[in-house]
């Protein structure tokens, strides 16, 4: 009998409160409300095995949203001081301990998880899914993809599971905006590494992105009564704080506005012409 897996077991005994499945050595209860109509001893039944609220092995004909060895995006149904509980399609919610969270989750959040069996032989969830992600994606450079953020690193960047299954990274230099664990992002493939992992960017190619950045800066100038209190030689951190752009991207966008004759630049500011 495999905990955390769907499997076909044989009915060995009928009782008032359900049927027992298995064989002479191992048996598990399928509660009466789960028993298919007309089932008799000797019949096969496909079930999923997990532990009930009293940590007893139990069978269900309901289909869970994730099994051992699989990945799934699940919603947080509740939290307590020990961790979170996820809706996975069964009566008893799935426990996600704090130690298995790559970022603290809240009620209503969604997270990419897999199952593991803890020291007490119970099924639990973990957000540490890096080793389960595939590296054989069909995507090529410049393809647009979608995925969920499952971890972040100050050193490397933002880790994404493309299509909830393929390994990808938004490198630190490409991280713009508020990107958080559980967020779904659309991105552009910038590279397919030798090991099959993807590098992503949430920004478009330079010409297209430059137009968007220029439009954003132009709108900000309107909001600031036509004057920005620094120019394109400003400190990179100030530019990032104000516009969430790298200094190079800012300079390109400002250059576009200058070429279009919309602005003038002096030693201290950028002004609408």
Describe this structure in words.
The chain has helices spanning 206-223, 236-243, 247-259; strands at residues 6-15, 18-22, 27-31, 44-51, 57-60, 72-80, 83-87, 94-97, 110-117, 123-126, 144-153, 157-162, 166-171, 184-192, 198-201, 227-228, 263-265, 270-272. With 273 residues, it is mainly beta. It has four domains: 6-60, OB fold (Dihydrolipoamide Acetyltransferase, E2P); 72-130, Nucleic acid-binding proteins (OB fold (Dihydrolipoamide Acetyltransferase, E2P)), CATH 2.40.50.140; 133-201, Nucleic acid-binding proteins (OB fold (Dihydrolipoamide Acetyltransferase, E2P), Beta Barrel); 206-272, Arc Repressor Mutant, subunit A. The strands form four sheets. A five-stranded antiparallel β-sheet has the order 3-2-1-4-5, with no helix packed on it. Strands 8-7-6-9-10 form a five-stranded antiparallel β-sheet, with no helix packed on it. Strand 1 (6-15) and strand 2 form a beta hairpin. Helix 1 crosses helix 3.
Major sheet characteristics: 5 strands, antiparallel
Strand order of the largest sheet: 3-2-1-4-5
- Look at the structure and give the mean pLDDT: 92
Share of helix, binned: 10-25%
Q: Uncertain segments of ≥5 residues (pLDDT<50)? A: none
Task: Give the topology, please.
Elements: E1 6-15, E2 18-22, E3 27-31, E4 44-51, E5 57-60, E6 72-80, E7 83-87, E8 94-97, E9 110-117, E10 123-126, E11 144-153, E12 157-162, E13 166-171, E14 184-192, E15 198-201, H1 206-223, E16 227-228, H2 236-243, H3 247-259, E17 263-265, E18 270-272
Parallel strand pairs: 13-15
Antiparallel strand pairs: 1-2, 1-4, 2-3, 4-5, 6-7, 6-9, 7-8, 9-10, 11-12, 11-14, 12-13, 14-15, 16-18, 17-18
